[in-house]
Amino acid sequence: MKIRLSILLLAFMLLASCGHKEVVIAPANILTQEQMASVLVDFHLAEAAIIEVQRNKRDVNYYTGHYYTSVLKKHNITRKKFSDSVHFYSRHIDELKFIYEEVLTQLSTKQSELLSVKSL
After folding, report:
1. Which of 54, 64, 104, 111 is the most buried (most CB within 10 A)?
2. Are 71 and 42 in contact (CB under 8 A)?
3. pLDDT for residue 5
4. SS3 for the chain, per residue?
5. Cα separation of 101 and 85, whole Å?
6. Would the pTM count as exceeding 0.85?
7. Distance CA 55, CA 61 (A)
8. What is the pLDDT along the chain (120 residues), one digit of tens a residue?
9. For residue 118, what are the CA distances in angstroms to 43, 46, 47, 50, 111?
10. Cα–Cα distance, 93 to 99 (Å, whole number)
11. How far apart are CA 6 and CA 39, in angstroms?
């Protein structure tokens, strides 16, 4: 009997938690979800380039700073704005999940494009 009651209580709690999602409005100094996804895609591509630099035994420190600075310049954002955005989204997991779903979609698309070019 206690097990059934526990299962019913757990099921009720799960259903209740799924029903209402809080709408989060980001402050003006925070990147939008779309902007954040785009920046993160470029940071992940920069990370891949840095790994390649490391494989070729070149100065990783120089390239790391260069790549990260280039990404920020490309998106016309400051380190502070990026850092504030990371902090904001790390406290709003549902939004961060959405952002990373978009990041994975964009990276997968880029990978498919590269693989199709290589196969030519």
Report:
1. 64
2. yes
3. 33
4. CHHHHHHHHHHHHHHHHHHCCCCCCCCCCCCCHHHHHHHHHHHHHHHHHHHHHHHCCCCHHHHHHHHHHHHHHHCCCCHHHHHHHHHHHHCCHHHHHHHHHHHHHHHHHHHHHHHHHHCC
5. 17
6. no
7. 13
8. 433 333 433 434 444 445 456 777 889 999 999 999 999 999 999 999 888 888 887 778 878 888 999 999 999 999 999 999 999 999 999 999 999 999 999 999 999 988 888 776
9. 23, 20, 21, 21, 11
10. 10
11. 45
Other beta carbons within 10 Å of 38: 19
Angle ∠(92,95,97) on CA atoms, nearest 5 = 105
> Which two three-digit tokens encode residue 60?
């990783």
